[in-house]
Write a structure and sequence with these properties.
single chain; alpha/beta; Rossmann fold; 2 domains; eight-stranded mixed β-sheet; five-stranded parallel β-sheet; 16% strand; elongated
Length: 382
C-alpha cells in the first residue's frame, strides 16, 4: 500500500484501543488497517470468520464476493448467517451483520461468480485477496489472477477435520501452482457437500487467514510465505510443510506461460462428462416408472453416513470409491438408476458403468435432494 494513511477518529481510537496498546500495531498499524482494501472471495464457512474479524479489526474496506443464498446446511459453520437468513442472499445477510459489528468499515458487495471475464477487474481495487472458496477451478483462477496482478493470495481449505493455510505470491514466494501444478482428477477429492466438514474447522482456518491478512497489512511477524500450515483438528496437531518457489511453475516461474486467465472449469475437468440426455432421468420420471411396475436396480453411490440420513427405498448402497471392486455384485443386463446427493458422483458412476458394458444405466438428475423435493418430502435433506 502506498496510499496516504488516514487519521483515526476519537471513536475509532476507543474502539481499537486494545490494538493500539500492542507495540506491533500501535497508531501507525491501525492507520494501515484503516487504509487497507481486502477482497474476500466467499461469504461461507471460511469467509464468515475472515469477514467478521477483519471488520472488527478495522480494515477500512472489505470486498465480499458471493452469489449464493443461505441454506439450512450452511448454519452449522457459516456464522455470519442465522436461521432467519435461510433463503436470503448471503451478501445481504453478511452486510447486515458486518454493519452491526462495525459501521465504520466500508463493505463492498460483489454479487457475482468470480470468473475469467471479471476477476482481474475486481481484484484491481484491492491490496490482498483471501480465498474462501471450496472448489479447484476458483482456487486456480484466484491464484493466477493474483500472480498476474502482483497481489498476495491468502489461501485456505477445509475437509472434515483437516485444513490448510498458506500465503501465496508474496516476496518472490511460491504460488498455489507451485504446490499443486495440476488439479486432481474430477471426483478424487470430495467437496465439503459430499464429504462433510466439522463446523468449527472453517472458523479455525478462517481466523488464521484473517490473522495472516492483518500481519501483511501492518508489516509484522512472519507470514505463511513458503510454508503450508496443516491443521489436524481431530488430533489437534499443527504441522508445517516448507514450500519452495518452483522455477518451472507456469504461473510464477522463471519463464511463465500463463499470461492471461483461462477456462478454469475446463482446466479442472468440470465439463469433461459429455452431454448425454439419454443417460438422465428426473425424479418424477423415476416415480412414474416405478409406479408403472418397473423394477430397476436403484444404486446409491453415496457414503454410509449419508445413506443413514435418507435414501430411496430398496436402493443398494455401493459408495463410488468401492464401485470398481464391487462391480461383480451388479447385473450389467439389468435396468439401473444411479443416484447420489445432487447428481455429480452418480454421473461419474454412470460413465464408469457404461465403460464396463452397462448399457441400460441412467443418472438421477439432482440426486436424492431433488427426489425429496419433488417426490418424497417426508425425508430430511442435508
Amino acid at each position: 500500500m502506498d496510499r496516504p494513511l488516514p487519521e483515526l477518529t476519537n471513536d475509532e481510537i476507543r474502539r481499537y484501543s486494545r490494538h493500539l496498546l500492542v507495540p506491533e500495531v500501535g497508531m501507525e498499524g491501525q492507520r494501515r488497517l484503516k487504509a487497507a482494501r481486502v477482497l474476500c472471495v466467499g461469504a461461507g464457512g471460511l469467509g464468515s470468520p475472515v469477514a467478521m474479524y477483519l471488520v472488527a479489526a478495522g480494515v477500512g474496506t472489505l470486498g465480499l464476493a458471493d452469489c449464493d443464498t443461505v441454506d439450512y446446511s450452511n448454519l452449522q459453520r457459516q456464522i455470519l448467517h442465522t436461521t432467519l437468513d435461510v433463503g436470503r442472499p448471503k451478501l445481504e445477510s453478511a452486510l447486515q451483520k458486518l454493519h452491526a459489528l462495525n459501521p465504520e468499515v466500508h463493505v463492498e458487495a460483489h454479487d457475482i461468480r468470480l470468473d475469467s471475464s471479471n476477476a482481474l477487474q475486481i481484484l484491481a481495487g484491492y491490496d490482498f485477496v483471501i480465498d474462501g472458496t471450496d472448489n479447484f477451478p476458483t482456487r486456480y483462477l484466484i491464484n493466477d489472477a493474483c500472480v498476474l496482478s502482483g497481489k498476495p493470495d491468502i489461501s485456505g481449505s477445509v475437509f472434515r477435520f483437516e485444513g490448510q493455510v498458506s500465503v501465496f505470491g508474496v516476496r518472490e514466494g511460491p504460488c498455489y501452482r507451485c504446490l499443486y501444478p495440476e488439479p486432481p482428477p474430477p471426483g478424487v477429492v470430495p467437496s465439503c457437500a459430499e464429504g462433510g466438514v466439522m463446523g468449527v474447522l472453517p472458523g479455525l482456518i478462517g481466523t488464521i487467514q484473517a490473522t495472516e491478512a492483518i500481519k501483511l497489512i501492518i508489516g509484522a511477524g512472519q507470514p505463511l510465505v513458503g510454508r503450508v500450515l496443516l491443521v489436524d483438528a481431530l488430533a489437534m496437531r499443527l504441522r508445517e510443510v516448507k514450500l519452495r518457489k518452483d522455477p518451472e511453475c507456469l504461473a510464477c516461474g522463471s519463464h511463465p506461460t500463463i499470461r492471461e486467465l483461462i477456462d478454469y472449469d475446463e482446466f479442472c475437468g468440470v465439463h469433461r462428462l459429455p452431454p448425454a440426455a439419454e443417460r438422465d432421468m428426473t425424479p418424477r420420471q423415476l416415480k412414474e416408472w416405478l409406479d408403472g411396475g418397473a423394477q430397476p436396480l436403484l444404486l446409491d453411490v453415496r457414503e454410509p453416513q449419508e445413506y443413514a440420513i435418507n435414501r430411496i427405498p430398496g436402493a443398494l448402497l455401493v459408495p463410488i470409491s468401492d464401485l470398481p471392486r464391487r462391480i461383480g455384485e451388479l447385473d450389467a443386463s439389468r435396468e439401473t438408476v444411479v443416484y447420489c446427493k445432487i447428481g455429480e458422483r452418480s454421473a461419474r458412476a454412470v460413465e464408469l458403468l457404461r465403460g464396463l458394458g452397462f448399457r441400460d444405466v441412467r443418472n438421477l438428475v439432482g440426486g436424492i435432494r431433488r427426489w425429496i423435493e419433488e417426490v418424497d418430502s417426508s425425508q430430511p435433506t442435508y
